[in-house]
């Protein structure tokens, strides 16, 4: 038994210290070590001490021994959540140690075991109501696994869910900002197994080892990831990114019907569109008509709410929000819908700015919602928008003794002239570009002898004009071909 443990640790140390190995040689060593670990009995894995083992130097033995200890404790206690794996327990501490220092290139070859460990970690963190304790550790672990390639992992949705539960949104940003460029499929495993070194006797083992860290990727995993990511951006009020991620979800390809996750994303997309644009944005063209009909059928309360918002009907908007409160609460969108009143005021002021060059704050108060029912409140609200850069406007006090204030919209006064000047500049730029292109074509024609005069001269020299006028009956086609060949060879000589 001691000899087998020593063999495992020796292979692991050689792998850790072999800096000069080629990629194929390194893979061969990893496969050998994984094969030994997977063939090892429970008694051997139980003899591996996690206390004195370095997770960075002995990544794979540490991982296999840790999983064995977790299974052992669960079987012994008959509980899926024994004290030893709860936060503060000795196995929890060993898992934190591993996730903070493991070798990513080695773990990428044992995806099954990696997924098992992280799933245990996610389960414990969520069921002990302490998700924040796992968020920071998992954030660094996911980044460690994807240092060179931004590969989607089924564990991503679970991590984002923990971020939402713990309200630790900032820890998710480094993951979300890395654009996913690889969606693993089952074909990757087959392709990768083709070039794995080793004997044919262990072909099945090698193919199993090739399944990397991605596990079984499903449509639900992808939809959940982008929905959770959009919810995090919504919590941070980054409406641009939230809208983009929701569009990804509602645009996912479907066979016949849409999933519940996609319906939930569409409902959120309607509200986010109102918060960002003041109206429902144009849906992507990639969404088929029958899918849009399904969305519109199941999201009627949200579309009715949006209609009241777009028509600036404050009384109806209040009624829609009040009547639909059970719906918003059931969909977990109550907080999102409540933000519409603030967005309503902003949308109204922006619409007034597009329609008028100047207004008194009293005029704005007449048109604004009940929360801005006085000129003083309007002045304070507009001043906050102007100082935050959301609104380009100026507040001008009128004559002494008058309480009203004039609100001017410089952007609206210059909008027509600015658009006109912009179109003029764009037309001039395109005209110059066309002139440069035309000049270049003429120069190429001259250099290549493709001008009208050159073409006429060639036709006369080679008898093409006779062919064009009289046809092949009066001119021998062989003579014409011979003339072309002689002309080409003459240029070479």
TrEMBL record:
<dbReference type="Pfam" id="PF22788">
    <property type="entry name" value="COP9_hel_rpt"/>
</dbReference>
<dbReference type="GO" id="GO:0006511">
    <property type="term" value="P:ubiquitin-dependent protein catabolic process"/>
</dbReference>
<feature type="compositionally biased region" description="Basic and acidic residues">
    <location>
        <begin position="188"/>
        <end position="209"/>
    </location>
</feature>
<protein>
    <recommendedName>
        <fullName>COP9 signalosome complex subunit 3 N-terminal helical repeats domain-containing protein</fullName>
    </recommendedName>
</protein>
<feature type="domain" description="COP9 signalosome complex subunit 3 N-terminal helical repeats">
    <location>
        <begin position="49"/>
        <end position="289"/>
    </location>
</feature>
<dbReference type="InterPro" id="IPR050756">
    <property type="entry name" value="CSN3"/>
</dbReference>
<feature type="region of interest" description="Disordered">
    <location>
        <begin position="187"/>
        <end position="215"/>
    </location>
</feature>
<dbReference type="GO" id="GO:0008180">
    <property type="term" value="C:COP9 signalosome"/>
</dbReference>
<dbReference type="InterPro" id="IPR055089">
    <property type="entry name" value="COP9_N"/>
</dbReference>
<keyword id="KW-0963">Cytoplasm</keyword>
């Amino acid at each position: 038994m001691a000899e087998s443990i020593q063999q495992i640790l020796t292979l692991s140390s050689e792998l850790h210290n072999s800096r000069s190995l080629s990629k194929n040689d390194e893979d061969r060593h990893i496969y050998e070590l994984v094969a030994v670990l997977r063939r090892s009995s429970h008694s051997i894995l139980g003899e591996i001490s996690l206390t004195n083992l370095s997770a960075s130097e002995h990544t794979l033995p540490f991982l296999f021994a840790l999983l064995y200890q977790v299974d052992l404790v669960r079987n012994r206690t008959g509980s899926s959540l024994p004290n030893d794996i709860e936060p503060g327990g000795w196995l929890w501490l060993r898992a934190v140690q591993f996730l903070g220092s493991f070798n990513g290139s080695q773990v990428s070859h044992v995806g099954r075991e990696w997924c098992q460990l992280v799933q245990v970690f996610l389960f414990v963190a969520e069921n002990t109501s302490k998700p924040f304790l796992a968020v920071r550790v998992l954030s660094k672990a996911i980044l460690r696994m994807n240092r060179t390639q931004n590969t989607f992992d089924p564990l991503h949705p679970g991590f984002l869910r923990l971020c939402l539960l713990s309200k630790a949104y900032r820890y998710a940003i480094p993951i979300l900002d890395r654009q996913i460029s690889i969606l693993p499929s089952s074909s990757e495993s087959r392709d990768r197994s083709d070039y794995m070194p080793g004997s044919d006797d262990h072909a099945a083992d090698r193919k199993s080892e090739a399944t990397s860290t991605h596990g079984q990727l499903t449509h639900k995993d992808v939809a959940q990831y982008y929905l959770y990511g959009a919810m995090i951006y919504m919590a941070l009020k980054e409406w641009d990114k939230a809208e983009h991620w929701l569009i990804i979800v509602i645009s996912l390809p479907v066979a016949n019907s849409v999933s519940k996750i996609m319906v939930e994303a569409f409902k959120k997309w309607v509200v986010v569109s109102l918060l960002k644009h003041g109206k429902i944005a144009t849906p992507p063209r990639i969404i088929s008509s029958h899918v849009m009909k399904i969305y519109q059928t199941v999201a009627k309360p949200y579309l009715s709410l949006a209609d009241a918002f777009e028509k600036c009907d404050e009384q109806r908007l209040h009624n829609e929000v009040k009547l639909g409160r059970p719906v918003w609460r059931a969909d977990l969108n109550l907080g999102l819908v409540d933000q519409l009143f603030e967005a309503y005021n902003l949308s109204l002021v922006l619409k007034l700015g597009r329609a008028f060059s100047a207004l008194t704050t009293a005029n704005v108060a007449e048109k604004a919602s009940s929360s801005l029912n006085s000129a003083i409140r309007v002045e304070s609200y507009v001043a906050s928008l102007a100082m935050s850069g959301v609104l380009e406007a100026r507040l001008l006090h009128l004559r002494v003794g008058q309480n009203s204030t004039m609100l001017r919209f410089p952007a609206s006064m210059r909008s027509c002239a600015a658009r006109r000047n912009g179109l003029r500049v764009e037309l001039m730029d395109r005209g110059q570009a066309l002139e440069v292109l035309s000049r270049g074509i003429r120069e190429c024609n001259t250099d290549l002898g493709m001008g009208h005069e050159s073409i006429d001269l060639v036709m006369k020299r080679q008898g093409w004009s006779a062919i064009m006028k009289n046809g092949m009956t009066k001119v021998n086609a062989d003579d014409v071909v011979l003339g072309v060949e002689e002309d080409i060879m003459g240029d070479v000589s």
